[in-house]
Amino acid sequence: MSIATVACRAHVGMHAPLVQVEVSVGRGLPFLSIVGLAATVVKESKERVRAALLHSGFEFPAGRITVNLSPVDLPKRGGRFDLPIALGILFATGQIDCPAHGPRHPGTSEFYGELGLGGELRPIPGLLAAVACASRAGNEVFIPKANATEVSVLLRGSSTVVARAADSLRAVCAHLEGTSVLQRLTTAQVSDAKPLESFELDLSDVRGQIQAKRALSVAAAGQHSLLMLGPPGAGKSMLARRLPGLLPPMTEAESLEAAVIASASGVDFNASTFGRRPVRAPHHTASAAALVGGGSRARPGEISLAHHGVLFLDELLEFDRYALEALREPLESGVIHIARSTLHARYPAQFQLIAAMNPCPCGRLGDASGSCICTPAEIARYRARISAPLLDRLDIHVEVPRVAPTDFEGEGARGPSSAAAAAQVMRARERQLARQGVCNARLPEGQVEQWCVPDPAGRSVLERAMRQFGFSARARQRILKLARTIADMGGEAVVSASHVSEALSYRMLDRRSL
After folding, report:
1. Are residues 452 and 444 in contact, defined by beta-carbon separation less than 8 angstroms?
2. Quick one: which of 119, 194, 242, 441 could link to 52 by a disulfide (CB 3.0–4.6 Å)?
3. In the chain, pLDDT over 90 holds for what percent of residues?
4. CA angle 39, 122, 67 (to 5 degrees)
5. How far, CA to CA in Å, does 302 sit from each of 12, 131, 258, 279?
6. What is the C-alpha to C-alpha distance for residues 441 and 421, in angstroms, rounded to an integer?
7. Based on the domain organization, do 356 and 411 belong to the same domain?
8. Is 141 found in the same domain as 18?
């Protein structure tokens, strides 16, 4: 009886815990058993491994084979364990002569890949987290060639990643035996990915809407959430689509974190978009699990896929109320914890929420044509679809009225370009990061009174507004953060009454009864 051990890693949210694939081959009736809390897809690998070994020119041992996936209390899912199981059988039966020392020693390597029946290696989801953890542990990784472009994003930011890509089981075995060499991946080898065609939507394309454009720039400068209310065709969606063009570039760390989340989702990773802020715009029929994450595998939702980017919810009040209420905690904490019976996953969710809604069921409330047919009770029921606690967490509520015919004439109706607004946003962000290390919207509550205190006149304006409109303590904190951002955009060190007044003007739904 002989035992071989091959290293791999499981996929649990953003983490990749190490898994030792132990293979024991002994006497007895031919049988292959896989233990260690393996899902059905892992247990089915016995048939894929058997066919892959035979079609690759190896023998499948005629004895009792036991595969243990350690630690045994960690759930294992997916086809990533196919290659380690196959190699473990080859090591245990002596069909591969692998030197005990040197770079090919399996004890310092990790192996990933789903096997086809012919022995070819197929791509697996969620590989970035595993490769990043292996790199920190000083291990080299063997991956399917189809995952090479995905892993390339890690090569750009680190010289310690040792990854080798193969297209078949036979190629991996030849490398381990020393008969051929799988070259270490470099950025030059995987730079053939074609970038997406890029184009910028300019803010000046939106005619009129001076206040809404200003609110959009303030939101971009401080990473504030924004709710736009107005009739159909007023430009709400146009404004939202132009927000990414105002945001500063992502840092290397932010880009890697967003890429790992996209890789963990299994369906949304695209190496050609690395470094771009993610923009997610789910349909209003999306469920709560689709928005915040969940399912039996605890996959990331739209709020995590929009991490360090923008989440745009058009037709906000058409979303299921339960789905909207699920956004309350992530908006505050910037993370989402998904608990299932067999696993717990934690995903970052520092997204910038941009939402748009109509003012009434017919959408024409406040229109100059006076054609709204909705009763006050209907309007109240319609707006009540968004709860007061959720509305309280949205920093900016701004009205986007129908564009006047005169706003389509002359250059003055265009307003600032995206380039000019982005430059102002960048300067404001630099001031915030130099002063407190985070954007104003992410400022911890304990530091609001340190960095966002207004002068006496500003404090007086805020106190009068709180008494008159009944603002909550949370709304007060958000107004102070918003006023701090407005001051930063003007390059001013002190939050004055004018900054507080402008911040108050962006809380229109707090100043009206729903």
Report:
1. no
2. 119
3. 64
4. 40
5. 18, 24, 12, 10
6. 19
7. yes
8. yes
CATH number of the domain residue 208 falls in: 3.40.50.300
Do residues 22 and 59 both lie within one domain?
Answer: yes
Write down the pTM of the prediction.
0.87
Is residue 371 included in any domain, yes or no?
Answer: yes
Q: Is residue 512 part of a domain?
A: no
283 is in which domain, residue-wise? 203-438
DSSP assignment of 200-216 equals: ---GGGS-S-HHHHHHH
322 has which bridge partners?
Answer: none
The answer to whether residue 319 scores a pLDDT higher than 80 is yes
Mean pLDDT, the chain, integer: 88
Bigger pLDDT: 132 vs 408: 132
For residue 510, count CB atoms less than 10 angstroms from its CB and return exposed for 0-12, middle for 13-18, buried for 19 or more.
Answer: buried
Element (H, E) at 380: helix 376-383
Q: Taking a C-beta distance cutoff of 8 angstroms, is the pair 79, 99 a contact? A: no
User: Would residue 358 count as lying in a domain?
Assistant: yes
Q: How open is the CA angle 279-284-288, to the nearest 5 degrees?
A: 85
Same domain, 169 and 224: no
Interval 216-235: pLDDT, tens: 999 999 999 999 999 888 88
> pLDDT tens digits for 394-447?
999 999 988 877 777 766 567 788 999 999 999 999 999 999 999 999 999 889
Query: Cα Rg for the chain, rounded, in angstroms?
Result: 28
In the chain, the number of structural domains is: 2
In a domain, 115, yes or no: yes
Same domain as 378, residue 255 = yes
Kindly indicate the confidence band of residue 275, based on its pLDDT and cuts at 50, 70 and 90.
confident
Q: What are the tens digits of pLDDT across the range 34-49?
A: 999 999 999 999 999 9
CA distance 514 to 510: 9
